[in-house]
Amino acid sequence: MTAMLEWIRAELEFAAFFSYRIPGSSPSYALCAPIPSPAAVRLALVDAVIRHTGSVARGRDFFGLIKGARLELEPPPRLAAMRCFLKRLKPAKDRPASVLESTGTREYWLMDGPLVVWVNTSHPDQVSQAFRWLRRLGTTDSILTCRVDRGTPDLRLCSQVVVKIDATSDLAGRPLYTLHELGDDAQFDDVNPWSASPRKPFVRRIYALPLRRERAGENWVLYRREPFKT
Questions:
Q1: Which pLDDT does position 140 carry in this prediction?
Q2: How many helices (H) and strands (E) does the chain have?
Q3: Could you tell me which residues come within 8 angstroms of residue 218 by beta carbon, excluding any fewer than 6 positions away?
Q4: Which of 90, 107, 124, 132 is the residue whose CA sits 20 to 30 A from 3?
Q5: How many angstroms separate the CA atoms of 184 and 123, rounded?
Q6: Strand 6-14 to 115-121 pairing
């Protein structure tokens, strides 16, 4: 018997600014997307499972069930982006418990409400628990808390994969971002940083967001959410 699919609704509330560097952009001039990539969400959940349970095997099993689950991202009603030049402290890779100073341009997002992640899964209890364990997206930025419920997404409010845009399309004039998703043949060892797998697990896709620019200044932009027509 085929297991019934259910939609999990996870509200991600960030403690301060949200920052997710666009894949391929320079660390010294880091432009950021207002939503994380689907691959980043999936891997953050796998990481949360491993950290909470202390079991890599549990993380491997969870990777298998979350990799192919349908995932939708719904931005909040309003968002503001701010670009600034700053000095940051980051962990030193070759010196434990040490930090390095780095300077550069970074973009940060402030959200007027939660970022909602929808996951359609036949394992709702396991996915819900992983979201409750989730405390951050990425390595050190974007600390968060998460509330989990169930429901049905309004896909007009969620990001959409772009195939083609013309002048009359509803996607015209909306912000577009190139983000990572896991490939169909991606395996746990391909994303495990301690594995020697040479395979590349990610594919790049262009996403349109249900947003319209409302106002802008020299180093900031304010967006409002506007549903897609279809």
A1: 61
A2: 4, 12
A3: none
A4: 132
A5: 19
A6: antiparallel
Coil, strand or helix: which one is 162?
Answer: coil
Residues 147-175 have a mean pLDDT of: 88
CA torsion 140→146→132→139, rounded to 10°? -10
Q: Edge-to-edge strand order for the sheet containing 70-74?
A: 70-74, 115-121, 6-14, 144-150
Q: What is the pLDDT of residues 7-47, one digit of tens each?
A: 999 999 988 888 887 777 776 777 788 999 999 999 999 99
| pLDDT greater than 90 at residue 199 | no
Neighbouring residues of 195: CB distance < 8 A, sequence distance ≥ 6: 189
Residues 144 and 17 sit within 8 Å (Cβ to Cβ): no
Task: Give pTM, 2 decimals.
Answer: 0.89
Nearest C-alpha neighbor of 88 from the set 141, 52, 33:
141
Q: Is the pLDDT of residue 228 over 60?
A: yes
Number of other CB atoms surrounding residue 71 within 10 Å: 20
Can you tell me whether residue 83 is helix, strand or coil?
A: strand
